[in-house]
């Protein structure tokens, strides 16, 4: 299931509310023993017999039965695991309509979750819709290598490899030449292995536009051998930002490489940010309707699913406050900053009595949630460059649209 399909399913699931705690969510990570899960669902069905309300009991048991049947049918857990959602989604009380959804995500499910609630638990899958953009890293020498990626500031090690290349011997003569040849062959095999793992980790991301850059490091010349000879495909070499000398190789070297790459990553981020802000500004200038800015317009475009990229200034912080007038019942919505707290005393536009604050929500959280649901990407824009400062002055929130909306 790709990101777009996933976001559609999650949107649908997010709309259901159970009358009681009767909506069942089940996450099964890859490699989990499916027979154990079937047993578990079975024991939960007996457990459910203790539920007092007859309708709820029936609904929960039916949902669990449906899941159990599905798992028996499947026979094994799919490659990335599976999430099942089942429950009564009928609008009419007493006339149950037990439905089940099955999600095989594009990324592996991390942990087992079983939950019976008034709503489906979709948060772990929503995380899969967050931007997947990463920097790829390879750190190697002749003896070992590690491959990983950086998302935000977090380093994930994907593969570690050890070579069979023996150290140099001091023996001379013919056997020495033969030994050198063997050594060269083993080294060549090792670089090919690294390249294969790198392809596994990064090639698909590169094709999806999710690989922002590749940084290769290590203590010796192996980093040059890997990047200057024909080991890596062009698609990955095109993403190569730089090679960096490190003291360590392998996993330890990968951490060192991350520390030494900070400036390069920062610079590459700034370039990306500037490009996006400029795209936004060019749209405005052309008046082609593909850019909007300001809270109200951005919120509207997000709601419609029209936003391709949501741009948010780093310092942006607003709350959405909902007011209601105690005397005339008039409702109003205001966007306020944390430091404008006194705005919470908001006079009624109709009768001028002080309105009651009903609800206060963080705008960023609302926006990010919506963006995840609608498969819009989110980009934080620093104020360290001119373009970023310009966006900040335009209200700190803007969007590039998939299509014009007016
Ligand atoms: Zn009023």
Write structural notes for this entry:
The structure is a single chain. The protein is α+β, with helices and mostly antiparallel strands and 406 residues long. The protein has three domains: 3-129, Translation, Eukaryotic Peptide Chain Release Factor Subunit 1, Chain A (2-Layer Sandwich); 134-271, 2-Layer Sandwich (Nucleotidyltransferase, domain 5); 291-401, 2-Layer Sandwich (60s Ribosomal Protein L30, Chain: A), CATH 3.30.1330.30. It has eleven helices and 16 strands. The strands form four sheets. Strands 7-6-5-8-9 form a five-stranded mixed sheet, sandwiched between helices. Strands 3-2-1-4 form a four-stranded antiparallel sheet, sandwiched between helices. α2 packs antiparallel against α3 (54-74). The model has no long low-confidence stretch (mean pLDDT 89). Zinc ion is lined by residues 325, 327-328, 330, 348, 350-351, 353.
């Amino acid at each position: 299931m790709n990101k777009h399909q996933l976001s559609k399913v999650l949107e649908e699931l997010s709309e259901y509310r159970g009358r009681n705690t009767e909506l069942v969510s089940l996450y099964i990570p890859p490699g989990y023993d499916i027979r154990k899960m079937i047993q578990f669902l079975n024991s939960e069905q007996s457990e459910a017999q203790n539920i007092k309300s007859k309708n709820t009991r029936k609904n929960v048991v039916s949902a669990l039965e449906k899941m159990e049947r599905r798992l028996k049918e499947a026979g094994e857990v799919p490659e990335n695991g599976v999430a099942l959602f089942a429950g009564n989604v009928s609008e009419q009380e007493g006339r149950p309509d037990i439905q089940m959804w099955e999600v095989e995500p594009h990324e592996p499910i991390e942990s087992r979750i079983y939950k019976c609630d008034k709503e489906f638990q979709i948060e772990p899958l929503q995380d899969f819709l967050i931007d997947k953009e990463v920097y790829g890293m390879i750190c190697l020498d002749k003896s070992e290598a590690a491959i990983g990626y950086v998302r935000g500031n977090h380093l994930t090690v994907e593969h570690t490899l050890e070579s069979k290349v023996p150290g140099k011997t001091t023996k001379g003569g013919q056997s020495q030449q033969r030994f050198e040849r063997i050594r060269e062959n083993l080294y060549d095999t090792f670089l090919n292995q690294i390249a294969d793992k790198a392809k596994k980790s990064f090639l698909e991301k590169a094709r999806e536009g999710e690989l922002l850059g590749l940084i290769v490091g290590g203590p010796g010349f192996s980093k040059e051998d890997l990047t200057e000879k024909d080991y890596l495909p062009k698609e990955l070499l095109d993403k190569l930002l730089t090679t960096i000398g490190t003291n360590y190789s392998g996993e330890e070297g990968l951490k060192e490489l991350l520390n030494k790459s900070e400036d390069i990553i920062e610079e590459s981020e700034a370039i990306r940010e500037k490009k996006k802000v400029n795209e936004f500004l060019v749209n405005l200038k052309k008046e082609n309707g593909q850019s909007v800015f300001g809270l109200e317009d951005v919120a509207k475009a997000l709601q419609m699913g029209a936003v391709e990229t949501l741009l948010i200034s780093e310092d942006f912080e607003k709350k959405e406050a909902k007011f209601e007038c105690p005397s005339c019942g008039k409702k109003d919505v205001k966007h306020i900053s944390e430091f404008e707290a006194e705005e919470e005393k908001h006079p009624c536009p109709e009768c001028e009595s002080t309105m009651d604050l009903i609800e206060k929500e963080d705008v960023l959280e609302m926006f990010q949630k919506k963006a995840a649901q609608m498969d819009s990407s989110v980009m934080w824009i620093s104020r360290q460059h001119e373009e970023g400062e310009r966006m900040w002055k335009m209200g700190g929130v803007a969007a590039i649209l998939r299509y014009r909306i007016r």
